Amino acid sequence: MRMTRLHAPTLKETPKDAEVASHQLLVRGGFIRKLAAGIYDYLPLANRVLHKIERIVREELDAVGCQEVRLPMVQPAEIWEESGRWGFYGPELLRLKDRRGGEFCLGPTHEEVIVDLVRRDVRSWRALPLNLYQIQTKFRDEIRPRAGLMRGREFLMKDAYSFDVSEAAALESYDQMYAAYERIFARCGLDFRAVEADSGAIGGSRSHEFQVLAETGEDAMVACTHCGYAANIEQAEVPAPAAGEPASVPSVETVATPGKRSIEDVSAFLGLPAAKLVKTLIVEADDELYAVLLRGDHELNEIKLRKHLGAAVVSLADEKRVKQQTNAPIGFAGPVGLTGVKAIVADHAVAGLDGGVTGANLVDAHLANVQAGRDYQATFADLRFAQDGDACPRCSGELRAFRGIEVGHVFYLGTKYSDAMRCMFLDEEGKDTAMVMGCYGIGISRIMAAAIEQHHDDNGIRWPIALAPYTVAILPLQMNKDDVVQAAERLYETLRGAGVDVLLDDRKERAGSKFNDAELIGSPIIIAIGGRGLANGEVEVKLRATGEKRDVAIDQVSAFVAEHLR
Ligand code: ATP
Ligand code: MG
Fold first, then answer.
1. How many CB atoms lie within 10 A of CB 115?
2. What is the DSSP string of 441-505?
């Protein structure tokens, strides 16, 4: 491609609304433009990157026997009513009506459509396993679209769905997809980690996220320093600490804490670390109130609480209800003598506190030396988020915290959809049986952003070779010198002939701005051709990934490029 023909409107200034590197560089490099919040145009450079990602995905999925389909984006409400999700899916689902008043939505995911397709035509165990996938635009009316392509409302996803005769067979399909995902993300040149993930409402199932390691990632994870354990902190288990010798704790004492409601304030006022305080949250779970106790320096994991209580939804109770039902003034709630809650549930760490400080259920007062079991009764469970430094739940190692960008998700579904929508087959004995499913997503457009988060510097993008829109950029530095222009043209033709994706910067620009744009767009190999070098039969080759520069004889350049791209 010639730069004079390429539609890549680069910008010198960083766009004001872009906070993360990938968003800034995609806009500055002329890859994307915003049409509306969370909705972007992909320009030619971005489109090339997306094609490269898609190609890797297709090759790896086709290799394990998945078959590509293309399903409608507009989906009728009826099938969502059958699965029970029309009512369940909140405002993220963009609903619309056609001219006859028929209700539809824009597909945020395609379980309903695929199940409807398969249940109509697949009847026999002989046709299974079946794994169908597509690469397609999804729409989710995200409450907070952010960071450019990272969390869009309209985005590109690869979604795959497996259908099997049994749980064992479905788990085999799952493992096969897991392995394919490892190959896909490795080929994309990403530093990633597969972590155990929350499997939502479907209990006892298996789910892993593939996370690209990046400080700007929205997801928090922990991984063991010793064994292979890694999990999203939504999911990460925190083992109960070993019970120590029961300490003898003096009896409860009331301390005045005027106006000190938060853990920080009480901790500063009493000169005690937050780890000596007990936080009491009044929580509403399916309309019942519970008191939830946590150590002051720990955070409640609502997913764990919901599972522990077997509730569909949990949330902090509102002030009014707390006032009406309990004797706990806001900020001074505590487990001793608390009334109006169904039960007190406490995180394991609270059991290990030898006399903690809790609210007194009196305005402006706390209690010291409070001992679980002696001063109040509670049930104990794992209710908090894992933290850096926690013990590993699988071995004697320690957990480290890190952040990531979720680029893929594999999910064992069981028969949730096939039961609800009657997706059945006749087994070998002729018995009507529900198919066992899995679903598998990859954020194609999010990968483009994640790759940049991981691979960039102050000057621009450093594309992994496999994703670069152009792997080589040729910069003739003096457009007024015939020998320079001719050498550049010859090299351009040679590389193109060899099947290399090459961009020739044939603009009549200063050398400086050609370098700037080349580094911004991020071609892995930048070849600068200048009069002085040519006089010695040499060009300058710069590797974008490392910044390493070297002079290469002009007749060796093709070989050098071929070697480097291998
Ligand atoms: P998240 O927790 O980030 O919202 P999700 O669990 O809703 O993700 P899935 O439904 O599993 O995501 O979708 C499959 C993949 O699609 C995700 O792993 C992610 O890479 C991508 N994805 C999901 N939502 C978005 C979005 N709003 N913008 C871009 N990519 C997305
Ligand atoms: Mg989501």
1. 25
2. EEEHHHHHHHHHHHSEETTEE---TTT-S-SEEEEES-TT-HHHHHHHHHHHHHHHHTT--EEE-
The torsion defined by the Cα of 24, 52, 109 and 107, in degrees rounded to 10, comes to 80
Tokens representing residue 153 in the block: 């409302």
Catalogue the E-assigned strands of 165-244: 192-196, 207-213, 219-224, 230-232
- Residue nearest to ligand 1 atom 13, measured at CA: 441
Handedness of CA 457, 463, 465, 469 (dihedral sign): negative
DSSP states along 44-60: HHHHHHHHHHHHHHHHH
| Per-residue model confidence as pLDDT tens digits over 148-171 | 999 999 999 999 999 999 999 999
Mean pLDDT of the chain: 93
Interval 91-138: pLDDT, tens = 999 999 999 999 999 999 999 999 999 999 999 999 999 999 999 999
For ligand 2, the distance from its centroid to the CA atom of residue 437, given in whole angstroms, is: 20
Ligand at minimal distance from the CA of 444 is 1
Q: DSSP H helical segments within 273-402, as ranges?
A: 302-309, 319-325, 348-351
- Is residue 331 scored above 90 in pLDDT? no
Q: Taking each helix axis as running N to C, give the angle between helix 21-28 and helix 444-454, from 0 to 180 degrees, rounded to the nearest 10.
A: 100
Which backbone phi and psi does 152 adopt, to 5 degrees?
A: -95, 175
In a mutational test of the pocket of ligand 1, which residue from 89, 406, 440, 447 has the highest number of ligand atoms less than 8 Å from its CB?
A: 406
Strands (E), 64-125: 67-68, 74-76, 95-97, 103-106
Report which DSSP code applies to 376. B
3-state secondary structure labels for all residues of 529-563 = ECHHHHHCCEEEEEECCCCCEEEEEHHHHHHHHHH
CA atoms within 13 A of residue 244's CA, in its CB half-sphere? 11
Residue 441 in tokens:
């997503």
**Ligand nearest to the CA of residue 210, numbered in listed order:** 1
Q: Coil, helix or strand for 210? A: strand
Ligand index nearest the alpha carbon of residue 140: 1
What values do phi and psi take at 220, rounded to 5? -105, 140
3-class SS of residue 93: coil
Ligand 1 atom closest to residue 151's alpha carbon, by position in its atom list: 28
Q: Collapsing DSSP states into helix, strand and coil, what is residue 86?
A: helix
Predicted pLDDT of residue 328: 83
Q: Which residue's CA is minimally distant from atom 26 of ligand 1?
A: 151
Residue 333: what are its φ and ψ, rounded to 5°? -70, 150
Question: What's the DSSP call for residue 205?
Answer: -
Q: CB under 6 Å to ligand 1: residues?
A: 109, 140, 142, 151-152, 155, 157, 406-409, 441, 443, 445-446
At residue 329 the predicted structure's pLDDT band, cuts being 50, 70 and 90, is confident
Asked if residue 267 has pLDDT above 90, the reply is yes
Of the listed ranges 128-142, 191-205, 400-414, the least confidently predicted one is 191-205
